[in-house]
Predict the structure.
Amino acid sequence: MRPRHLCSRHDGEYHRVSRLTSRTDALVVLPPGVEGLTARRAWVHDDRVRKVVAVAATLLLIGACSSPSRSTPPSVTTGSSFGQGCHPASLVANGEVQGNASPGISLWGLTGGQPMSEGAQIKIVWRMTGVGPLVVTPIAPDGRTRPLSWGPAYHLSSSYHRPGQEWGTGFVFDQPGCWHIELSRTIGRADVYLEVTATA
């Protein structure tokens, strides 16, 4: 008795499932990847089991012949406050600004009440606890870093009474918007967000 052959494509290769038309015997060759039945032939003599195996083989063929679904990579959206203003800006009050510091670290900046305006020369004196030299990195609203106009200059003595050591820095904010000031020491870091207004 000639078997009928059904073809399926599985992982780039063709495999055959042979079914005998006999009511008592069935020869099934399943595609690779099926645990327990890979690369071997199973003779089934029971009529009821033969039917179950035939249905299972048909389902495997349907899955193998289906076009593989192409998963669409998720879109990546980068959240940023660049160019959107500070939400919120660091609080500047009474000529001072307090930074958002890592645990156990304190940061205060003395602005002297200067208006934070585009193109102006701004001096800020920082008092920061921690260990090591101070590194100050201004990040403009467009997301790019800018150099300091001068500093950080370490102060040996001062009348500014806040915890930590003291440094002076100079800024020229060349565009309006939210400026992110990163301050870091060997031990300790802090962030300040300043809203710079456009010149009239």
Q: What stands out?
A: Residues 3-31, 34-46, 65-84 have pLDDT under 50 and may be disordered. The chain is about 10% helix and 40% strand.
